[in-house]
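Write out this protein's structure.
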Amino acid sequence: MNPNDIHLLLTGDELMSGDTVDSNSSMIAQSLAAFGHGVAEKVTLGDDRARLVAALQRAAGTARILIMNGGLGPTQDDLTAELVAAAASVELVLHPEADKHVRDWCAARSIEPNDANLKQAWLPEGAAIIHNPRGSAVGFAMDVSGTLILTTPGVPGELRAMLPEVCERIVAAIGGGESHRVRLQTFGIGESTAQARIDEDSEHWPVDVVLGFRAGMPQLEIKLTAGSASPEVDQCRQTLERLIGDHIIGEDDVTLAGALQQVLREQGKKMVTAESCTGGLIAAMMTAEPGSSAVFEAGFVTYANSIKHSVLGVDNTTLETEGAVSESVVRQMLSGALERSGADIGVAVSGIAGPDGGTEEKPVGTVWLAWGTTDEMHALKTVLPTDRAMFQKLVAAAGLDLIRRQLLGLPKLPHYFSRRAI
């Protein structure tokens, strides 16, 4: 048995069927990383007694810590307490503290506790409570053959509230200290390109700093982790800023919209959007962030050509001769939006999201973007051959990023367009 091995056992038929996407293991791993620990093994199983018993028996012989997630609720398929009791060769007993928790939880909601509720108070003999501030099912901890088993509910919000105590118990059992970790949010550069740039500069990368990527849409997270607080992590951050600095939008959980809001706020400016193919998504991304009223002036969704003309003043002749997806039209859309809103800076987009509507000259995925101010306006055409939803997300994200770049004086043509722009 490795003295520091931590295993995860995630349970539930819904995880196996795909009805529920596992986010809990990521949440657990991130919490453990803050104490310098990682997950050595993860197993996901349905609500099958035989398989779960076998997994518990195997973990009890190999893992120092087993975090068992799921199966603590009131229904018949919530098997965790029963199975851990069997693995420990003890009986299920009514736990007074768990019983009080369930009854208090029901009373706070004016619910008369029934047998299903009270089932959650029956725990393996000798188990210690792990408090659940949000749900009716407490977790519990107990030692089985030298393995500390920590059980947690599968509801993500309840798990998140219980993880501090879970981590405290792990640190008490096997020690641990805070690791030094930096999370950088980037946009417009993929893992392979970022890694290639780092590899070309590898002589500057310390071996003690672990580089990690977490791909998302529309952002890519780059993580730097060392076992303890170390100036090398900060040195690696400086290396990344030198290699891909214009793609770094901020730290931790910042979004493109949040990063742009900060820049607008610092510069005392407001923005506007004029959207066709994105259907208001750029405005929605901005207004989803708190504090948007201080920096977001207006959003125009001008889908039909007649509305582009009547609302934003786009010339009908231009629409007829050049089409809605053209440089002239997006420039006029942006000019009209800036004039009507009084905003300082903005972005306009018009494109062919598909799956229909493309031509040989303008295939599906073609988009024109215009961004900037009345005095300094830019426009760009590109083709993003992807599905409709992804097309809209990419165009909306790019629109936010292009404004951010102009405000910060970064290179106008970012990596994600330098290979595609026409």
